Amino acid sequence: MLRFSRRAEKYQIEGLPDWMASLLHARGVHDRETAEKFLQPDLSHLHDPFDLNNMQKAVDIISAAAKGKKRAVVWGDYDVDGMCATSLLYETLQAMRIPVITFIPDRHTDGYGLSFDGVEKLASQADLLITVDCGITAQAEVQRAKELGMTVIITDHHALPEMLPEADAIISPLLNNYPFPHLCGAGVAWKLSQALKGLEYARKQLDLAALATIADMVPLTGENRVIAALGLKTLGDTKRAGLVALKEAADIAHHHPLTSEQVAFQLAPRLNASGRLSTAQGAIELLNAANPAHAVPLAQELNTLNTRRKQEERLVLEAAEKQLEKADLLHDRTIVVVGEEWNAGVVGLAAGRLAEKYGYPAVVLSQSGDMCVGSARSAGEVDLYAALKACEDLFERFGGHTKAAGLTILGANVDAFKQRFNEAVYAQLPGGELIPTAEYDDEMPLSLVTPETSEALMRLAPFGVGNPAPVFLKREAKVLSARCVGADMRHLKMTLGEDDVIRDAIAFGCGEEFGGLSGSVDVLFVPQKNEFRGRLSGQCLVKNIVISSGVFKEDAALERRIILQELQAALLNSVSYPVNNLSPESLQIAGSQGTLLLCRTAKTAMRLKEQFRWMDAAIHRINDPRAFQTVLHNARLKDINAPYEKLVFADGLIHPSEAGLAHTHLPKATLYAFPISDTLSTRIEELAVTQDELREAYIALKKQTGLSAFPWTDEKRTAALVMLSELSLIQGEGSGICMLPLRKCDPQESPLYRVLST
After folding, report:
1. pLDDT in the model for residue 734
2. Would you tell me which CATH number, out of the four given (3.10.310.30, 3.30.930.10, 3.60.15.10, 3.40.50.410), belongs to the domain 327-432?
3. What are phi and psi of 358, to 5 degrees?
4. The 3-state secondary structure of 43-57, one letter per residue
């Protein structure tokens, strides 16, 4: 189940088209002056770096260190933000002729942030300790550094603790009412570099600052938009040997402006792979590399690590999905999985994938001995930090914010945590429901999906958090064709139609769920420009698909085929199970989960979808452990993989034994059946074979003339063959049918004949 939510209201800004004004309004831009700054980001829009808390003090300390030939260490973090911040400030201090080294903790052995061991080791190597992207909560570690004679400057962007460390200077956009509080760690370091060396010097470092800003998923508004937009241009023509090699490794052309998507999905994962699977040292060396001979092998190594990261992530996800087979996602609103020695560097990625797929907050824990270390990701509007805070007494440590968190917990406390975390999330949900929501900006006809539209929308780029790529809704788009594509057939290639307009569409990761789709669907999409053999056209990058009632197309042949298959399966089933008779008028459905209306005919499916418009529509199969209320058409019971508690045979039972078959596949479901519908009765009658017809079929097979000349449907021919096989007159199927010795028999000996002839 997926609900669409419109984020753009009709709005007007003088001098702009209404559609652009509406999109800008949804992104917090409400007047002409702000719009011009948004659409034409410029360095002049940046705030004075000395508006940041303690900036002048930090500049004085560092300048004095340069004059006094003091040694410095830049202590960073093992993600892209921390790496870029480290490299950026290292470069600036070198330019000031300060002897400087870098230190990035090992994710697996040191953990995040300042540590006593690290501080004590570095005290003999540096007089000045500068943190980037960390340190704001390290009261005790900073105190120890001071005791060891180090001067400490903290630059960080994370949430402030109740008590700040007693550092010599703390630079944070969250202090001193700085006008833009959303800088990332590298953004703060870049502002320090600007304060130390001037804007013209800092301009050359925009490639690193933009890479970090996009990768760290901070809002791409205000100063971040300036950094990202101008930095992407710098990154396109960067002279850094390391970034040139990294782009080549990611198959990104040099001397072309990059997009935020290329940074987020091609460059950032390669850098992050270093910190996730090894140490971040390789990535730091790459960013600081002086020449291609040094950079290219390092970039290739990151490529290898990134491939390994994907494999590790896939293994964790597969194991997590296996655990979820036993979970109760119909009633729970959270996901908690734990595995022995899962790679701690990928558990956050896995948690994000699970939260995105199921729409529930997810926690993925890696257990080593008695201790579990893991990451959590939120879903919907759930305040993850508040939910975890309610379980704080169970943790050894935890920290994070509303959308993401990390935690350490004893294995013995995991079961209690699962229960209390679920209760804490439930307490935040109105009515206990957590239904995934997808946002769109406006509705758009397919006729407007053109290269020109795509170009116009690119004025809003770069896209990311706070400035998502504009998404549009097309209701009742006709699916003219749909096929699975890609090496593993995971993606869905479609042709969509509206009146006489046809557009290509691609939906990544939707092949398994929507393969063979036809009829009409509601789609959320991003208009894209597609070039094929020199010809430009518009296409839809589909983000979400919701099947509408238009997908329920009457296909008598398919309905007969499925009815025949289910009838055969039911007749082989020896389990009986009670069914509650129900009239269509008395059907009541409450909540959003647990009920499935199984329809054998399109007529019934369309009627019920019209009656219960808020329910999902599905065809052929269901594979969702959340069991959202659904109207399902043309599906076999064996293809329902969801823990429904209420199954309604909306066209009635094909045969009494179908109830036992349903219980086999849906053991927790209470069964209900409407009276058999006229259309289902007709479909069953269309499968019937008389005794004379059965005799004629046998003779035709014996003469090897086959049944193709008979004026029957394919399904009736199949039924006749099944009957003859049940009577032991033939064996095999298709072209492999063999005649068995003729024997005297009564057609009533065939269970299928007996059922269809009554």
Report:
1. 73
2. 3.10.310.30
3. -100, -15
4. HHHCCCHHHCCCHHH
The one-letter amino acid at 743: R
- The whole-number pLDDT of residue 203 equals 97
Strand 371-377 and strand 362-368: the pairing is antiparallel
How many angstroms separate the Cα of 47 from the Cα of each of 30, 157, 188, 224, 305? 20, 16, 12, 11, 38
Domain 441-547, CATH class in plain words? mainly beta
3-state secondary structure of 611: helix
**DSSP string across 87-119:** HHHHHHHHHTT--EEEE---TTTT-SS--HHHH
The sign of the torsion formed by the CA atoms of 179, 182, 188, 194 equals negative
Q: How far is CA 575 from the centre of its chain?
A: 41
Which parts of the chain register pLDDT below 70? none
Contacts of 758 (CB under 8 A, 6+ apart): none
> Would you state the pLDDT for residue 399?
80
Q: How many CA atoms lie within 13 A of 602 on its CB side?
A: 14
The pLDDT, as a whole number, for residue 430 is 87
Query: For residues 514 and 503, what is the distance between their CA atoms, to the nearest angstrom?
Result: 18
Q: Is 465 exposed, middle or buried (0-12, 13-18, 19+ CB in 10 A)?
A: middle
Contact 193, 205 (CB under 8 A): yes
Q: How many CA atoms lie within 13 A of 714 on its CB side?
A: 8
Rg (alpha carbons) of the chain, rounded to whole number: 32
Residue-level pLDDT at 376: 96
User: Which residues of 417-533 form beta strands (DSSP E)?
Assistant: 437-440, 442-443, 472-485, 491-498, 501-507, 519-532
Can you give the residue ranges of every domain in the chain? Answer: 49-304, 327-432, 441-547, 556-683, 688-756
Q: Are strands 640-641 and 622-623 parallel, antiparallel or unpaired?
A: parallel
pLDDT at 519: 83
